Design the sequence.
């Protein structure tokens, strides 16, 4: 790569240092480049933890089903009620946490192929 690009120019994260100041919570709307979806058995308690404990705020809510939380720009978390995520209330195994990321149509096929190779451990000699 011949060009140096200082990603702090576009990042909401301040340059590390003793005088670093946290940015304000970001309430704008954008296409999320990546986010996690976390199933929870107690949506209200999870929202309370992420909000009071970690400083996130509710950006969007579908009552009893889903809460989109945000802190800084690009710090997005979707909390979903376990029942909405396909969990039977009597099940002992929680539904999986998922991580989603954005790509463009031209990347879909190559991304799928790369994922398939990773699943079978190409290059490592071992299953992933």
Sequence:
């Amino acid at each position: 790569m011949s060009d140096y690009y200082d990603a702090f120019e576009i990042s909401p994260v301040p340059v590390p240092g003793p005088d670093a100041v946290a940015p304000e919570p970001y309430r704008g709307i954008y296409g999320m480049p990546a986010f996690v979806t976390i199933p929870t058995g107690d949506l209200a308690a999870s929202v309370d933890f992420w909000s009071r404990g970690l400083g996130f705020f509710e950006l969007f809510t579908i009552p009893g089903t889903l809460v989109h939380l945000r802190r800084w720009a690009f710090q997005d978390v979707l909390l979903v009620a376990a029942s909405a995520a396909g969990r039977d209330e009597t099940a002992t195994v929680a539904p999986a946490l998922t991580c989603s990321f954005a790509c463009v149509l031209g990347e879909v096929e190559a991304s799928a192929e790369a994922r398939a190779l990773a699943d079978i451990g190409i290059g490592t000699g071992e299953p992933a």
The chain has a mean pLDDT of 82. The chain is about 20% helix and 20% strand. Residues 53 and 113 are 39 Å apart (CA to CA). Helices lie at 43-54, 105-119.
